[in-house]
Amino acid sequence: MLFCLIFLGLPTAFAQNLDKNCFKTGADRPELYLPLLKGKKIGIVTNQTGLLKDKTHLVDFLVKNNIEITRIFAPEHGFRGDADAGEHVKNGVDKKTGISIFSLYGANKKPTALQMKGIDIVLFDIQDVGVRFYTYISTLSYVMEAAAENGVEVLVLDRPNPHDGYIDGPILEKKYTTFVGLHPVPIVYGLTIGEYGNMVNGEKWLKNGIKAKYSVIPMQNYHKNQRYETLERPSPNLPNDKAINLYPSLCFFEGTEVSVGRGTDLPFQIYGSPFTKNLPYTFIPKPNFGAKDPPMNGQICFGEDLSTSKENLKEINLTYLINAYKNYKNPAKSFFLSNLWIDKLAGTDQLRKQIIAGKSATEIKESWEQGLQQFEKIREKYVMYED
């Protein structure tokens, strides 16, 4: 840190490199959290992304430092991050440490009173992607709720948000509340996971307005408009930073008859369908790691390859969804899935209706503006880091 301060007067380009060198996640600041954990019984919510800079897993680091971990809680995709999206994650035991693992995905998304019994602090360390329908923020919220109900503290080790510094999308309407959208926030909400938990607590969004005893180990030298390398894929089908960047724009296809590349080497970097034959790019989804039975399995899909694009999106791009809708030709099935999953993802039925009505991307995004302005007034109360 002293090294950073000495060279603050250097030219901007060098200062940016210096910023990256001096940056630390919450997990890489053990001098701040180890004293809080010593002599306590710890439950930890983490997965394959809970890494220190040298790729040591946080669980292994804590065990080495004689921190008593009584149980591990695993979110969607499991403790090792190898389960498909939506796949039931089983309870088990971590082979390396012998610590019991309890799933927080499936029937039991919220820790039970029995699972919380005997824990002093729940430590939360997961690399999020900063998008409402990515379920790790829902897991954090349920953990906070269970902790508040059982007199347990929550300590979050903060990590970068790859979609920080901007907000976009419709605000979730209450009747569309699900595990892919618990709170009245836009799809891209512009907060780190530590900041998000503070907002959940501060706005009393937990059940019955209860509040958790909640604190954050902040990152060092983090800037909300700077992008940081992801040490490990946050889930099987977000394998790199390009997929993460496109995720808020392409995830809408999960509510349609269009593939987002699950079952290929380019998930969330391509899209296509057997019924969009006017589009130039072709691919065939097949079972693979993270997609045991992908949509459009074995079928030739026609679409678009976005994997080589140099664009760093800082907004939701609706042109992909609208383009696919206009080119979709299938008399047997409508473009949107019959279960209307698109409405759960969007947090409203308006996006689907606007696309059917032929609204342009500009017109649709203009309809979000009022809600975004209102949300920004809430968000700004919880911002911990500079731009």
Description:
This protein has 13 helices and 10 strands. The chain is globular, with a radius of gyration of 21 Å. Strand 1, helix 4 and strand 2 (68-74) form a beta-alpha-beta unit. It has 2 domains: 2-230, Uncharacterised protein PF07075, DUF1343 (Rossmann fold, 3-Layer(aba) Sandwich), CATH 3.40.50; 241-351, no CATH class. By secondary structure, it is of the alpha/beta class. The longest helix has 15 residues, at 136-150. The two termini are 19 Å apart. The strands form 2 sheets. It has a 7-stranded mixed sheet, sandwiched between helices. Strands 8-10-9 form a 3-stranded antiparallel sheet, with no helix packed on it. Helix content is 28%, strand content 12%. Helix 6 (136-150) packs across helix 7 (193-202). Residues 246-385 form the Peptidoglycan beta-N-acetylmuramidase NamZ C-terminal domain. It holds the Pfam family NamZ_N.
Topology:
Layout: H1 2-6, H2 12-22, H3 30-37, E1 41-46, H4 58-64, E2 68-74, E3 92-93, E4 100-103, H5 113-116, E5 121-125, H6 136-150, E6 153-157, H7 193-202, E7 213-217, H8 241-250, E8 270-273, E9 281-283, E10 301-305, H9 319-327, H10 341-346, H11 350-356, H12 361-366, H13 369-379
Parallel strand pairs: 1-2, 1-5, 2-4, 5-6, 6-7
Antiparallel strand pairs: 3-4, 8-10, 9-10
